[in-house]
Amino acid sequence: MSSQLLPITLYDIPSRNAAYGNTWSPNMWKTRYALNFKGLPHKTSWVAFPDVAAKMQSIGAPPSDKAADGSPIYTCPTLSDPNPSSSSPALITDSWLIALYLDKTYPSPSPLFPASSALLQETWIEKYETLAIGPVEELLVGLVSKQLSDASIPYFVETREKAFGKKIDDFCPVGPERDAALAAMQEGLGKVAELLDKNGDGKEKLFCTGDEPVYADLVFASSLIWIKIVAEEEVWSKVKSWHGGRWERLLDAVHEKYGKVY
Amino acid sequence: MSSQLLPITLYDIPSRNAAYGNTWSPNMWKTRYALNFKGLPHKTSWVAFPDVAAKMQSIGAPPSDKAADGSPIYTCPTLSDPNPSSSSPALITDSWLIALYLDKTYPSPSPLFPASSALLQETWIEKYETLAIGPVEELLVGLVSKQLSDASIPYFVETREKAFGKKIDDFCPVGPERDAALAAMQEGLGKVAELLDKNGDGKEKLFCTGDEPVYADLVFASSLIWIKIVAEEEVWSKVKSWHGGRWERLLDAVHEKYGKVY
């Protein structure tokens, strides 16, 4: 990490799982991996789910979206970067916007989007997420609450039940529905593996461009660690055995290098 | 063009339309744009549709696919490059494989796939083709025979009627079916424009990465010139008026620089 820079603050929502540094959300992992990829000094400020809106308003962070009634929606990850301006920190919300900001503000040592490939990477992320993560997304969301700190659980359960229109225990019940979701995920990951390996002349290719990850690969690893944290027994124990164990190799390759939680 | 290199031969199927150098197929345009983008000396060898298989077999070119009965399918574009080996030319069939070959064999002056972005570009091509070209593809295929040379028409009509399971005149009849196809295309192109411009901070961005095209942009231009050649009145006259005329600007930017037919 560069010692000339002041530490950047990353706002995150804590889990109860210390084994992963209390961080659990794939969107937070995207930003953590990106900060470590860039070698930027940073620290975490923990905010429980019900306190996110008030906290973000108090620091002047922008909302990430608008509700149907036009009211602002505040979310994490949010980044507060004191380095570019001495008068007020740069405040960026949303993992995608943060990645674009980091690449523009800190182009070295390596770009997250080499050769201006943001649109191309976004399209690839959308494709593999649709193929491989989509089938189990509801199952994963249903399991998140078991990981959260006490202060966050009721808020999370209430908002997700409202958003999905069903009780949290019904997000993906054990049985044929879950079996079908896992089968679809395995098939989707198989297609992703084929596309990656075609790009590597038929040899196993973990990453979407060269031998080092770009941002789309950090996003993929973020989905994998999310699965590992929230659905170790239900999903990850299966995923890591599929396709010659390549998904565990992909996650390990990213996490060992860029997974430290500060 | 580099004078130290021997001319590469591009095998193409002629149209009757001299205004576009007798070339019409989007797959041929992809290779023509790529050869000119690389500044490589080349010439065209014209082969009528019914003669493609025999010609490709006679020069030893690989088939591009297999039929259901296992027999080889021969297609154009095929490239014969005498430069890498003095004993026998490199023979490559299929516009995508040709593009990969050209980038590997002739990395300068500019890469078609900067930062090893072949998989990423392939995903973007698939996305905009699904959104914008897919809705009118059958209509365009139905109009191709009007452009072909006499020797190619019966073969083309017979094989396409068999492949699509309908008479060529029914590929997209004038009326509600065609109106719906055009409306879907306009909507799809609108989404493509949004994605491109998001990548350009909201300003019009013709290309998917920087201010110069990469291979995915040459492929996009190849679809546009195909539309212009085979469906000038029916489709192109509309497309060029949509979204502030940006599709004509995109095609012109590529074609004026890389559109010469040798």
Question: Would you give an account of this structure?
Answer:
- Two copies of one chain form a homodimer.
- With 262 residues, the first copy, chain A, is of the alpha+beta class.
- Chain A folds into two domains: 107 residues, 3-Layer(aba) Sandwich (Glutaredoxin), CATH 3.40.30.10; 141 residues, Glutathione S-transferase Yfyf (Class Pi), Chain A, domain 2.
- Helices cover 49% and strands 8% of the residues of chain A.
- Chain A contains ten helices and six strands.
- In chain A, helix 1 packs parallel to helix 3, helix 1 packs across helix 10 and helix 8 packs across helix 9.
- Chains A and B meet through helix 4 and helix 7 of A and helix 4 and helix 7 of B.
- Chains A, B: Pfam families: GST_C_7, GST_N_2.
- Chains A, B: This is GST N-terminal domain-containing protein.
CATH classification, class level of the largest domain in chain A: Mainly Alpha
Tell me the helix content of chain A: 40-55%
Uncertain ranges of chain A: none
Largest sheet of chain A: 4 strands, mixed
Q: Counting H and I runs of at least 4 residues, what is the number of helices of chain A?
A: 10
SSE string of chain A, helix = H, strand = E? EHEHEEEEHHHHHHHH
Straight-line N-to-C gap of chain A: 12 Å
How many beta-strand runs of chain A?
6
| CATH level 3 topology of the largest domain in chain A | Glutathione S-transferase Yfyf (Class Pi), Chain A, domain 2
Name the largest protein-protein interface in this structure.
Answer: A-B, 22 and 22 residues
Kindly name the structural category of chain A.
alpha+beta
Beta fraction of chain A: 5-15%
C-alpha Rg of chain A, in Å?
18 Å
Mean pLDDT of chain A: 95
Overall 3D form of chain A: globular
Strand order of the largest sheet of chain A: 2-1-5-6
CATH architecture of the largest domain in chain A: Up-down Bundle
The oligomeric state of the chains shown is: homodimer
Number of domains of chain A: 2
